[in-house]
Write a structure and sequence with these properties.
Helix 5 packs across helix 8. The protein is built from eight helices and seven strands. By secondary structure, it is an alpha/beta fold. Strand 3, helix 5 and strand 4 form a beta-alpha-beta unit. The termini are far apart. The longest helix has 18 residues.
């Protein structure tokens, strides 16, 4: 590309870093945005700026929110004795889509991976243990992916929580080996939640 299109080249390179977008899709999206700059590009840029400035992690569970505490943690309609532990906010949103779970959440921010150097101190596991000790939690649902790293994380957390006297359950039928919550349909998540089993 010519020097005059360096901004578009940079836009294409940035878009290609998004999940699901390769270089070709990124080019098409960049051209679409530039061709519709008034209707789409400018409002999108404004929205991205507002999101960057205002959205943060909930100080309790790790969900995304505007303000210090998210609506789920502030809600008086949620069960306070049950906590659902998920890998990331996408998984929290997947659990919420079905509408079957009405307790609290805890977002780990990843999974244990000793090959990648991710240990318990790199995740929000100490915060989870502290919440269990201070919030009168009686059941922890470990809704983590059925991958090697997911199951390693389940095992580690389950041991810690059982030491604290908490009932630990995992999602039941419907979650395939290697499956990630964000890619499952609502019915599968609902079935897995209802058929959860003791760890």
């Amino acid at each position: 590309m010519e020097r005059d299109s360096s901004e578009i080249t940079a836009l294409v390179e940035m878009l290609s870093k998004l999940p699901g977008l390769g270089p070709r899709s990124a080019r098409r999206l960049a051209l679409h945005l530039v061709n519709r700059r008034t209707q789409v590009l400018v409002p999108l840029a404004d929205l991205l700026t507002r999101v960057s400035e205002n959205v943060r992690e909930c100080g309790i569970c790790g969900n995304f929110c505007i303000g210090e505490i998210c609506g789920i943690c502030l809600s008086g309609d949620r069960a306070t004795n049950t906590i659902c532990v998920v890998q990331n906010v996408a998984d929290l949103w997947a659990m919420e889509r079905g509408g079957d779970y009405r307790g609290r959440y805890h977002v780990l921010g990843g999974l244990l991976s000793y090959l990648d150097g991710v240990g318990p101190e790199n995740l929000r596991i100490p915060e989870l243990i502290e919440r269990v000790r201070t919030e009168s939690i009686t059941e922890a649902i470990l809704a983590l992916s059925a991958t090697v790293d997911g199951q390693t994380t389940v095992h580690y957390i389950a041991e810690k929580l059982m030491e604290a006297g908490v009932s630990v359950t995992t999602l039941g039928q419907g979650v395939p080996i290697g499956g990630e919550l964000d890619y499952l349909d609502d019915g599968t998540i609902s079935a897995a939640l209802k058929s959860r089993k003791n760890y």
